[in-house]
Amino acid sequence: MNKSFFSVENLPRLLWGLALLTLPVTSFRWFPGLGESTLVRPLALYPLAFLLPLLLVQAWRKKISLHWAGAFVALGAFVLFTVFSASAGSLIDPVPMRGQTYDGRAIRALVTLFIGIAFFVSAVWMNKNEADLRFTARWIFAGLCLDLAWSGLQAVTFYTGLLDKEMVTHWQLAFSMRELVRTNRISGLAYEPAWLAGQIATTFFPFLFAAVLTKYRVTPLRWLEPALLILSTLVLLATYSRGGLFITVGTSGLMLLLFGRDVLHSMWTWFINGFRDGRFASLSLRIGILVILVGVIAGTFIFLGQKEFFRNMWESNADTLSEYLVDINAGARGAYSLAAMGAFEEYPLTGVGLGGSGFYIYQNLPDWSLTTVPEIARQLSPESRLYPNPKNLYARLLAETGLIGFVLFIAFQFNLLGETLSLFKRQEHWARFAAIAGVFAWVAVALYNFTQDSFTTPNIWLISGILVGLSAKSGDFALHENKEIS
Prior knowledge:
Radius of gyration: 24 Å
Mean pLDDT: 88
Structural class: mainly alpha
Strand content: under 5%
Helix content: 55-70%
Low-confidence stretches: 475-486
Number of helices: 20
Order of helices and strands: HHHHHHHHHHHHHHHHHHHH
Number of domains: 1
Largest sheet: none
């Protein structure tokens, strides 16, 4: 790096790069004024807190231009209604629970929403063209490399005994809110394995998958993206996260069907032709590939089957859906989501107010969860201080913002998809790469939101913001091009 990289003009890019580099750290310990119950603490918020004011100041001084994206309108409509729903919720004013009041929860929820929007807006403004996209992707990969390195350190600690677990726990507690996972599941730099799997599925895998599928490389090392894809897959398996695995595998399969049919057709043609020519070398190669493929699939199931909660997915003898959820250790999550819908049924149009669903969960828990889910039994104890949450963003939106807020949020999401798909109009290699990564991330985030309910999580905003920024400038380019032709 030359000295000019650290100049005032390049300071926004430096801060943006630091935000992407620190993205994997989701529960940074050193945040002032936050209680122990606040688990979503992205370290990337620190550089972002300097980046956004700097961009606004530079724009005011006309040093840079900040473009307006159409997605801001849809997002603004949703935000305005959430503020209205929070105000309406204060009129309902539920009874305080475990030291929590509605006003406090509403303010906290609005703050988390605006933090998430800060990631989205920053991503829009910092990505205008191919050069910005390459810069962004490189720093995302740099953050992924740090995540993989720490995951590897955890794997060495868990499976080899070369490092003392207590010592590595102290290292991790120096920056994280949580010690190493006791069940020897890899969590990387995230708070828990499921969060790491969510990052891989919604942030890292989309770019890696698109790079391999389109053969577009953002770094000079052509082997880097395939290598990171393989390593990320191995770490994903080591998280034992069912949601993360199903989202990644399912979305990858869908993307292959939508955008990789030419690749699949050429692979199938090559495979079949090897049997037709009858040569021993060709036959041996293809039979060997089949054996390796079967071995990988069988080995994956054997590896995942080491954990009982994973093995129960295909070994359960449950007769009902609720019994199956309990058998696979998803009973508490399912019960919380169902209980949140009780608040929606009571206030279907406007909801109970942003942040207020927790006041209605315990009273609406399904009967089966009260006797069969130990986690819920512990949390219903008078000694517990836990404030419950729906564990599902869509259930939370319905409960807290009602049908109107939910529809506005879905409209915003489909606006994002439309902005992403518009990049296919650009007949350029980089635009196809970006569009495939964007669609992958959009589908993955849509599925991931069934398993989490926080607006602060950066990965539900980041790639969509990047694609909106690129498509906004792409639209300006297309309009200018049409004017020249006319």
